[in-house]
Amino acid sequence: MSKKVLDCRGMACPQPVLETKKALEEGFQQEMLIIVDNDAARENVSRFARNAGYSVEVEEKEGCYHLTVNRGPGETQPTAAETANESCDCEAPGGIVYFITTNTLGQGSPDLGEVLMKSLMVTLAEQKPPRALCLLNTGVFLALEDSPVIEQMKKLSASTEILVCGTCLNYYKVKEKMAVGVVSNMYDINSRLTGASKVITVG
User: Fold this and answer.
1) How many Cβ atoms from other residues are within 10 Å of residue 156's Cβ?
2) Number of neighbours of residue 132 by Cβ within 10 angstroms
3) CB 5: neighbour CB atoms within 10 A?
4) Which end of the chain has fewer CB atoms within 10 angstroms, the N or the C?
5) Model-level pTM?
6) Last residue of a domain, one of 21, 52, 85
7) CATH number of 168's domain
């Protein structure tokens, strides 16, 4: 029987982990080979698979890492629904709301902050979506047509409410460039924050 192969070379974080998660949910008979080309992906994918109950063997070949993932005989794999439930941080009706007040993530290099913000948005778009994103101050730049995360924002908008501060759009004179979400106000934004079961602040 042929081994299932997942080639994650050239993928930026967190895509190798997300692709691994999908592959594990789809299932395999006994063994799967995952190929990555950097240390971070090797560590992240290995940790994810082990935390999911699989054994992982790592071998370096031709500048890449070959991760052989195994499950023991007779072991059952979690279904996609079970995996989704395990990844959910909160089951309360209010859901999770992200309060985002910046277009970069963390302190330091703006270029690095932009990369990290994109990584966060890719992750949110692939996992169980939050109830809402509330964008204030330079966070509104994430919803503009030239935003580096506009693809992820559009994907999120299919199931996540995206509230974009109208005052902030007007202040930065970018309202006409808004490409996703709805122009909102502090009342509506505060209602989402106070009604949420969990608020995660970014900024």
Assistant:
1) 23
2) 27
3) 11
4) N
5) 0.68
6) 85
7) 3.40.1260.10
Of 85, 104, 133, which residue is a domain's last? 85
Q: Is 13 a catalytic residue?
A: yes
Instruction: State whether residue 7 is helix, strand or coil.
Output: strand
Whole-angstrom CA distances from 68 to 42, 98, 141, 149, 200 are 11, 36, 41, 32, 35
* Amino acid identity, position 201: T
Are residues 100 and 194 both part of a single domain?
A: yes
Residue with tokens 């995952």: 34
Does one domain contain both 109 and 149?
A: yes
Q: What order of strands is seen across the sheet that includes strand 4-7? A: 4-7, 31-36, 64-70, 55-61
Half-sphere exposure in the Cβ direction for 17 (13 Å, CA): 23
Residues 78 and 100 in one domain: no
Q: Which two tokens stand for residue 122?
A: 């890719």
pLDDT at 47: 86
pLDDT tops 90 at residue 44: no
Tens digits of residue pLDDT in 132-167 = 999 999 999 999 999 999 999 999 999 999 999 998
Indicate the DSSP class of residue 148. T
- In which residue are the tokens 């992750």 written? 123
pLDDT tens digits, residue range 75-117?
A: 555 544 444 344 333 334 469 999 999 999 998 899 999 999 9
* Structural domain contains residue 140: yes
Segments forming the whole domain that contains residue 152: 96-202
Q: How many residues does the chain have?
A: 203
Residue 143 carries which DSSP code?
G
